[in-house]
Design goal:
By secondary structure, the protein is mainly alpha-helical. It is 76% helix and 0% strand.
Length: 200
């Protein structure tokens, strides 16, 4: 019986998150009403309150879902890189590039910080930070990256990628800002290399 109840609760949560994701992408968090969200999911306000506390809690769940998908996609692209350094660089650039997606812009990069606060404190961002730190530690051990503090380097790399994405999302012409952000991010990251690559 408990198993069936848990499954039903999980299904309700998934329906609410899916409905909210569509509404937040279309109208934004502020304009999406709780009645519309629950009606589209075929549930009551009580289900929303029970599962997420309020609309802000629902936004946090949607942001977490999309941000986690972004990290997964960035890792997938990084897996194609020739070496660990390139993989770390590709992962950061892939995250920045996703800031052009309308859903990512509106929900994660604009509404997320406005209603949920500092993105660097989100659980999904902390998971990315730990992965970056591990990558930096491996690169330091192999002599590819200078022997700097791994956590400091990881925080600066993750922060640079996140802030580049936030800048692009808020820019009047995101397509113009994207290549500028990638160029600057790459230049900053390359400064960590123990041996600088030859000038082209």
């Amino acid at each position: 019986m408990a198993g069936i109840r848990a499954e039903k609760m999980e299904a309700n949560r998934a329906r609410l998150v899916a409905a909210a994701r569509r509404a937040f992408a279309e109208k934004g968090h502020a304009a999406a009403s709780m009645d519309d969200l629950t009606a589209e999911a075929g549930l009551t306000r009580g289900a929303l309150y029970h599962n997420f506390g309020d609309k802000r809690g629902l936004l946090a769940a949607v942001v977490h879902q999309i941000d986690t998908e972004m990290a997964t996609e960035a890792r997938k692209q990084a897996a194609k890189a020739e070496n660990q350094w390139d993989a770390m660089l590709v992962e950061g650039i892939a995250y920045i590039e996703m800031s052009l997606k309308p859903e990512v812009q509106r929900i994660v990069l604009l509404d997320g910080p406005a209603f949920l606060g500092d993105p660097s404190q989100w659980p999904s961002q902390n998971a990315c930070l730990e992965e970056t730190k591990s990558a930096v530690e491996r690169l330091i051990a192999e002599g590819i990256v200078k022997p700097v503090n791994p956590e400091a380097a990881a925080r600066l790399l993750a922060g640079a990628a996140l802030n580049a994405a936030l800048w692009i999302a808020a820019h009047q012409t995101p397509e113009w800002a994207l290549p500028k952000a990638i160029e600057a991010f790459s230049a900053l990251a390359t400064g960590l290399l123990a041996e600088q690559p030859p000038q082209r």
